[in-house]
Amino acid sequence: MRPIRPKREYGQHFLTNRALAEKIAAASEPKPTDNFIEIGPGKGILTEALIGKAGFILACELDRRLGEILREHYRDYDNISIMTADFLDFNPDTLSSNVKIIGNIPYNITTSILEKLAGFSAKIDLAILTVQKEVADKLTAVPGESDYGKLTVLIWSAFETTQLFSVPRRAFSPPPNVFSKVVRLKPVDRGIVDKAGFADFISGCFSRKNRSLINCMRCGFGWSKEKCENLLNKAGLNLKIRPREITTNQYLELFRLWQASR
Questions:
Q1: Boundary-marking domain end, from 163, 187, 211
Q2: How far apart are CA 194 and CA 157, in angstroms?
Q3: N or C: which end of the chain has fewer CB within 10 A?
Q4: How confident is the model at residue 115 (pLDDT cuts 50, 70, 90)?
Q5: Residues 6 or more apart from 104 whose CB is under 8 A from it?
Q6: H helix or E strand, kind and range, residue 64
Q7: Residue range 222-247: average pLDDT?
Q8: Whole-model pTM over 0.70
């Protein structure tokens, strides 16, 4: 592949370690019957590790330069399609079957990608993603920890998350300024029908940093203090409780009470 200068605006850090690429691909447990979406294939090192094991790969690459190179490189393969587009614009309603998601995702839009995946988790069999260590810690945080927050609860609502292994900075070119980890997201059904509503609810609950849940809800939902107190009383929660002190299951119960109170 000819030299390609990374674009800062795309947050590009190309994985160069082939052994790690093979390890990431293996974590997805690829089978000939599996359909994959690869987010941000870049120069294709992870694609190459997966192409001989997967049934089909839809590689979503925003950078047109890389899209053209990948399209040329895989022109004789019938189990891959290169889509030059932003994954955030991808319409999951076009999927005719479930997929596995894999990718060393751009760190500058990691949260947006995770939120999108949570929105169509019912169509995902498994996701293996390389993310910032900070994000990996947020995804697996527990109540009371400083990393526990909106992203923790939102992704919990759709997936069980496991940290698999670390990826050193030197495995990328150029090396990022942050440490990286590979995480495994396995979809789960928490019985949430209105996923968009749950996402809005959680955003409101974490709308004010280091404030009580009542203050957050007053700000996020425009509710009166009395109405917020009534909701917390129904849930059996302390009126001075803070958002990061509430368990994920308690948030689920709060959401159901919130829906009934609207």
A1: 187
A2: 11
A3: C
A4: very high
A5: 13, 15, 24, 40, 42, 46, 129, 130
A6: helix 64-73
A7: 94
A8: yes
